[in-house]
Amino acid sequence: MKQKQLIIGNWKMNPRSILEAQKLFDSIAKEVEALQKTDTVLCPPFVFLSDFSSRNKKVVLGAQNVSSEDEGAFTGEISAGMLKSFSVKYVLVGHSERRAMGETDEMIAKKVSAVVKAGMIAVLCVGEKERDTESAFLQTLKEQIVSSLGGVPERSLKNVVIAYEPVWAIGNNATGVVDPSSLLEIIIFIRKVLSDIYSQKSAHSMKILYGGSVDEKNAGSFMNEGSANGLLVGRASIQAKKFVEIVKIAENI
Ligand code: PGA
């Protein structure tokens, strides 16, 4: 059977208030309710999770970050167990904006393990800061993947999704967007890296998403020509109309 597409909205530090957040959540939820072939995940800021945990069963909840520790003296941190108790199913790990705040591959590996052990799905974000003509950036991707999955046994791979997000294509400072044919090659490369660590079968069954300046105009090309199993959407996920359009495109792939 064909895998379901996975569309994840990363709201980052938006919107400004719970009222705006509820409005955004509800307008997305009512549109995606009837869809069958797409999993829609929203990752709001932590403080909105409690309100959303019982709001709509069709929209799956995700978190934008997690602590690598279970409990204790870690001011400001939130554990995987806490997220799980608010019905969170997906957790973004190693987003480039967090790496820019100092998160290392070692910390990311611990976070991936914590999420997987708690029975949730880690969305491991990887991506190069810039492209070079000799394709040395592929080595960066490989190192990020190999080091982050160190603590994940093959049997737990169903709890990991990879999101390829080139840093230069993300957010308001993006200098471009990935060309779908290049995305196809990179996804093949990522599957090869995964099959070297685990097995071809596991590598083939893992979901690989694309993220970086996704909008309703380019979304289809990443999933069709680019072969992505879904998308990680930033800016367009805080505009209900655009995000719903993207989810509907995924539904018709
Ligand atoms: P963007 O962000 O869609 O706004 O480029 C993507 C992301 O940071 O996950």
Instruction: Identify the strand order in the major beta sheet.
Output: 1-2-3-4-5-6-7-8
Order of helices and strands: EHEHEHEHHEHEHHEHEH
Q: Helical content, roughly?
A: 25-40%
Number of helices: 10
Bound molecules: 2-phosphoglycolic acid
Range of strand content: 15-25%
Assign an overall shape: globular
Count the E strands: 8
Q: How is the biggest beta sheet arranged?
A: 8 strands, parallel, barrel
- Rg computed from alpha carbons, rounded to a whole number of angstroms: 17 Å
Structural class call reads: alpha/beta
Mean pLDDT: 96
Instruction: Enumerate the spans where pLDDT stays under 50 for 5 or more consecutive residues.
Output: none
List keywords for this structure.
alpha/beta, eight-stranded parallel beta barrel, 37% helix, 253 residues, binds 2-phosphoglycolic acid, 10 helices, single chain
Task: Indicate the topology.
Elements: E1 5-10, H1 18-32, E2 38-43, H2 49-52, E3 59-63, H3 80-84, E4 88-93, H4 96-99, H5 105-117, E5 121-126, H6 137-148, E6 160-164, H7 180-197, H8 200-205, E7 207-211, H9 219-223, E8 230-233, H10 240-251
Parallel strand pairs: 1-2, 1-8, 2-3, 3-4, 4-5, 5-6, 6-7, 7-8
Helix pairs in contact: 1-10, 6-7
